[in-house]
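A note from the maintainers: we've had questions about how concatenated examples are separated. There is no special marker in the raw files; a new sequence line simply starts the next protein. For clarity in this README we add a label.
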Amino acid sequence: MKSKVLVTSNWKEFKLEDLFEIGGSKTTPKKTLEEIGNGNYPYITTQATENGVAGYYNFYTEKGGCLTIDSAVLGVCFYQESDFSASDHVEILRPKFNMSKNIALFFTILLNRTKNIFGYAYDKKRSQTALKKEYINLPLNSKGEIDWQFMEESIKQTKHEMQNIINIYKILSGGGAKLVVFSPKEFKDFIQRAIIQIAQNLLDNLECEWGEFEISELFKVKSNPQLNKNNFIFNKNAKHPYFTRTVYNNGIFGYVEYLDEKHKIQGNSIAVGLIAMHFFYMEKDFYAGQFTKTIYPKFIEFNKNIALFFTSIFNTNSKVYLKEFIVRDFEKDFLKTKISLPITPDKKPNFSLMESFIKNLEQLHTEPLIRYYKTLQTTRA
């Protein structure tokens, strides 16, 4: 299955109240539910995990197919597919449009991002009054209308990417899952994404001495010579990646024929799309679209494995960047940010440890997967 590249160039701000009926839920004490007994209907609370569910009971007060918002603490948003009951401080957003599950999940992602931007907390609640003042940016289609199809496809592709990661673990553990069919280039990109994701999950388990460094000590940022995709000839056999602000396929929209040296960007670097603040290692020279920048090392030890280590750290911090950075000030804000790194006894970055960490992940996780993939390719041939 070949992944689609999802791109939308136009977004527009909408008032949340124009899209949803914003109201409260009927409060049901948990003691009442316990007296009624366990059942199939979720009990939604203000907790920020498990979709807000704190048990299942044989009782409901609210119809499903809506979004719920915690108005007590963090303002977390969840999609509630089933009928449910609720605790105190659970607000409900009922759509004024035909909302599928995938579109609902798209909205939860946007609303959970905006909660970070607004900084909701115990002393700044995401109440009905606050929600009615909120605006949300949505993609538009070529007719200038809300692009519902883009939302659907975006979530479908995200699920597909997540399933690929799950398949890695199933395959390596002998679970027998079938690997989705990739082209060689897609598979190479997928392996890099997998390594970055695994590294992000395991960084906290890396036992070593850590030190703090300002990013400006290690990297410099350059603006990219940006061109619209219409300037290029796309060809699946072309050598040059065209990097955009998409979070899919390592940020690569596609592969293009050579254009010129003026707009070509040096590889063996880290590229970032400024809308999602997502970082990718670019091994080869590439071209780029709007709202992208490239990060170059100031140290000679830089290579692919060390780049993947830093990319994992940068992506782990992307939520902070989304909340605190202004796109036009990215270079200034990014370079003054401090990050924690493994250090040597003389308190310098331990590049050797970073490289061995990534190499070990590749050996443990991706080399068996590559062998499995090659076996599949041979079998098909």
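[label: protein 2]
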Amino acid sequence: WNFISVSGYHIREAGSTAVQELAYTLADGFEYVEWALKRGLDIDEFAPRISFFFNAHNDFFEEICKFRAARRIWAKEMRHRYGAKNPQSWMLRTHAQTAGVSLTAQQPLINIARVAIQALAAVLGGTNSLHTDAYDEALALPTEESAKIALRTQQIIAYESGVTHTADPLGGSYYVEWLTDEMERQAMAIIEEIRRMGGVVRAIEEGYFLREIADASYRFQQEVERGERIIVGVNAFQDEGLQVPIQLIDPKVEQVQAERLARVRRERDPKRVQEALAGLRRAAVEGQNTMPHFVECALAYCTLGEMMDELRAVYGVYEEPVLV
């Protein structure tokens, strides 16, 4: 059971660079490790069950090297900084998803090519599992046809391309090894900077991540606007393209779900619900393990919103810092 998936996907989707995604995601992972160690947990008891979730973007070799550098950094830090002895603790296990932010509403069918390149990069980089986006996701939820093409893209890579026949198939390439080294160096410099700031939580509070990602996103968009970065179909090679059918969701779906939720609330035991929610809040206030209380809340048919309301009452709501 992978009790946590440390995600960098949303970081990249917000506009970070590949190196920032790499550094910030691993810094988050190390932060979780340090908080678990402060709780008295054994590194080799929990580290093997930590998993990661990275983006797979357009720059083919950069993405491959990002995954390779991530495994290197995790292994070195687990062994030398945190003293993990179990080889399973050194292994970075990761899921990857192709880049939703790279999908274009213009000429949506060419997103099939983008997804194929991104997926292949993730596989060559060593991802353990993979999600491929559908070509129409810039327009709507995927249709059955577009979802099937996304699936078939994975299957062609897995069963026809031959890239799965060996681990780290690009290992030894001068360029790949050089770029992996460079991304590792740059990412570790950022991780050490975060540590000097007092860790991830302090960096969040001071607006570091928000500021750095916003700056990177702005620079990217400026390059697109100036034509220095080509986005096919957007700022170059434009045409009307083929129109594709999109999936429209029947509004009755919302009504049906609302009725189901109302029925659950009518039929559940209100006393057990209140006791479970009170137990969750008490555990949060006292700094105790909240997981058993989440389980009890679920068994009592508390809604996710009700559980989160209890935590908001204790912890408050995060507000983005004002950047100056």
